[in-house]
Here is the input.
Amino acid sequence: MKFASRTEAGVKGFNQDALAVPKEGTDTDELGYCLAVSDGITLCPKGGELAEHAIKIVDIYYNFAKKDGPGEDTLDKALDKLWETFFVSAQLNNEKEYLSSGATLTIALIINGKLHLRHLGDSTCDIFLPDGSAQRITDEHNTPDGCLINYFGGEVQTKPQILTKEFPKGSKVILSSDGISYFLETDFMKKLAEDLSWKADAMISEMFALSAQAGSVDDRTLVIGH
Here is the structure.
């Protein structure tokens, strides 16, 4: 699997989104493909910093996977470790603003023909299968007026959405923050991808432009695994 990605700031001028994919040289055949997108809550004092901390989940997963073996149990162990380091840092440095801040976190681990999802917030994971079907598999953890009710950060470790989907050879995945996915639905992404023959760089340029035209003023982040 190859990846293409982009993240950029919205109208506020500084970017509170972050993303991570496997580092070059990672043994993805053995350890799987782990990728993540995070979107810092704009009104929080440390939202952007929390997003940068959240995507460390990818490195933590691979560090554990090398020692303990890959898979979704290791991913859960890595997610617990991510929360632990967050709380330890907040306590040691008396960072009270961290405990009143948060970020979305959407993680996909692709291994052995399956995609394992761990998800907090309203960023999204869309999958596109060889049979032509496509699906947004993430839940929106927010109120009707758009306030997040489950996210990475805060004073209590919350439970993520946990889901496993079949992901046969030839499948593709898109992770995106709501600066993209709020404006572009799965079926539209599928049609655009087919029209552009899954040329990822062209897809990213078009999706960023179209979301902006549709009114997106938020930070925008997109990862395409193809």
Notes: The chain has eight helices and twelve strands. The mean pLDDT is 95.
